[in-house]
Design goal:
The protein is α/β, with parallel strands linked by helices. Helix content is about 45%, strand content about 15%. The protein is built from 6 helices and 5 strands. It binds D-ribose (RB5).
Length: about 150
């Protein structure tokens, strides 16, 4: 199950991506926003991030105008590794190296077709573990204040 959410700046892109995800037979839970609603980006970020860390959804997609605000907000939730991407290469590597669990994009930054390519690159990638696992563990330690630098 994939959790998806957006603010008012990205409703059209969310709807396009929901159709694309349906064509990939991916089950989605839509946390809004809906057409005509004004929603501050921390709200969908918190809802989607919580669904992911609680295990109700395996991963999430968050969209706002730039993808920046909503990725900052999602990364405030312990256990979230959200990446804001505007091209497929970073999206793929964010999964392979950083084990990203939420993909963020900006509806005012990427067009619909590019957003689908970015999403596909992310969905099709797998976390590689290995040498990356220690670094991801450091991120978790930073969240709980046990990381020393
Ligand atoms: C909303 O106008 C806009 O600020 C928001 O979608 C996002 O771009 C913030 O990072």
């Amino acid at each position: 199950m994939l959790a998806i959410g957006c603010d008012h700046a990205a409703v059209d892109l969310k709807n396009e991506l929901l159709a694309h995800l349906a064509s990939r037979q991916m089950e989605c839970f839509d946390f809004g926003a809906r057409e005509g609603e004004k929603v501050d980006y921390p709200v969908p970020a918190c809802r989607v991030a919580t669904a992911v860390v609680e295990g109700k959804c395996e991963r999430g997609v968050l969209l706002c105008g730039t993808g920046v605000g909503i990725s900052i907000a999602a990364n405030k939730v312990r256990g979230i590794r959200a990446c804001c991407c505007s091209e497929p290469f970073s999206a793929k590597l964010s999964k392979q190296h950083n084990d990203s669990n939420i993909l963020c994009m900006g509806a005012r930054v990427v067009g619909t077709e590019l957003a689908k390519m970015i999403l596909d690159a992310w969905l099709d990638a797998e976390y590689e573990g290995g040498r990356h696992a220690d670094r991801v563990a450091m991120l978790a330690a930073m969240e709980v204040g046990t990381f020393r630098c």
